[in-house]
Write a structure and sequence with these properties.
Elements (H helix, E strand, L loop, with lengths): L1 E5 L3 H10 L4 E5 L4 H8 L1 E5 L3 E3 L2 E3 L5 E7 L6 H8 L3 E7 L6 H8 L4 E6 L2 E6 L2 E6 L3 E5 L6 H12 L4 E3 L3 H22 L9 H20 L6 H14 L6 H8 L9 H7 L5 H16 L1
Parallel strand pairs: 1-2, 1-6, 2-5, 3-10, 6-7, 7-8, 11-12
Antiparallel strand pairs: 3-4, 8-11, 9-10
Helix pairs in contact: 3-4, 6-7, 6-8, 6-9, 6-11, 7-8, 10-11
Bound molecules: ketopantoate.
Ketopantoate binds next to helix 6.
């Protein structure tokens, strides 16, 4: 299968690297990372260590069987515009935050699948991505239910050894992943700690409160997500990606804008009742963004 991974930063590069031994992979990202991958290949370190030679470019190709979109949620609309000219059979978002699939589906003619990904990755230098935690890709039809496209894409990912589950309840899965990101990302970014620091102690308590608030908002929207499930999933991802620096911490360390609006900010906007922990986390991260 020809797979274009659009948004080859840390997570996109890791997924592309894992898929490349089995599939014809094109990474689409920024220089100097793409130039280095094109010249020397992609070096994966950490949980698995290998070097692989996917195609690498800075613009989307004319055609692919599947586009895996891994850009920051703030860039989804721009990427959707670029993908309009790409002849695709299917598109899968593995992004953080809510609403990305809808933005892609509004622009594209092909089926757009919803996805979540809990793999941990860190871009160490151009051409080198650290694989910091084996997680899972969960994918399926955006509105839930069975999907032949989801089965086909899920099989392609699983064939390459990527931990994959095809789910018929993606709306719930997206809220569950939002709870995990709301719990982990801002707390690790503000405290400047790896995910594993939230296994216990004060950071774990703040993370659990943010996860519970997010589950409550999900239920307000008619989604069946208990507080206990949201906290349990958060603990599991903290364990599985203990050595990872969350994407928001990596953004802050690199001076890039964060996904706070699509994560804790989204929870605040969607809530009927106050969500003070998410609101405080969002305000603190925005304070950092303004001061930078
Ligand atoms: O999605 C992530 C992120 O950092 O954005 C997790 C799964 C929390 C891994 O760090």
């Amino acid at each position: 299968m020809h797979i274009a991974v659009v948004g080859a930063g840390s997570l996109g590069s890791l997924l592309g690297g894992l898929l490349a031994p089995e599939h014809d992979v094109t990474l689409v990202g920024r220089d100097p990372h793409m130039r280095q991958v094109a010249d020397e290949g992609l070096s994966v370190t950490g949980v698995e260590a290998f070097r692989i030679h996917p195609a690498a470019r800075t613009d989307v190709p004319d055609a692919a069987d599947l586009a895996v979109v891994a850009v920051k949620s703030g860039d989804t609309a721009a990427v959707a515009d670029q993908l309009v000219d790409c002849d695709l059979d299917a598109c899968l978002s593995v992004q953080n935050g809510m609403g990305n699939e809808a933005t892609l589906a509004d622009a594209l003619d092909c089926p757009v699948l919803a996805g979540t990904c809990t793999y941990g990755a860190r871009l160490d230098e151009p051409g080198t991505v650290a694989f910091t935690g084996r997680g899972e890709v969960v994918l399926g039809a955006r509105g839930g239910g069975a999907s032949e496209t989801a089965d086909r894409v899920g099989a392609a990912l699983a064939d390459a050894g990527v931990e994959t589950a095809v789910a018929a309840d993606m709306p719930t899965r997206l809220w569950a992943k939002l709870a995990v990101n709301a719990a982990i990302n801002a707390v690790t970014a503000l405290a400047r700690v790896e995910n594993g620091a939230l296994a216990d102690g004060p950071g774990a308590a703040v993370a659990a409160d943010a996860a519970r608030e997010t589950a409550r908002v999900a239920r307000e929207q008619g989604v069946d997500l208990t507080d206990e499930r949201a906290v349990e999933l958060t603990r599991q991802v903290v364990r599985d990606t203990a050595a990872n620096r969350s994407s928001m911490l990596q953004d802050i360390e690199s001076g890039r804008p964060t996904e706070i609006d699509a994560i804790n900010g989204y929870v605040v906007r969607a809530a009927d009742d106050p969500v003070p922990v998410n609101e405080t986390l969002a305000r603190l991260v925005r304070t950092w963004e303004r001061a930078d």
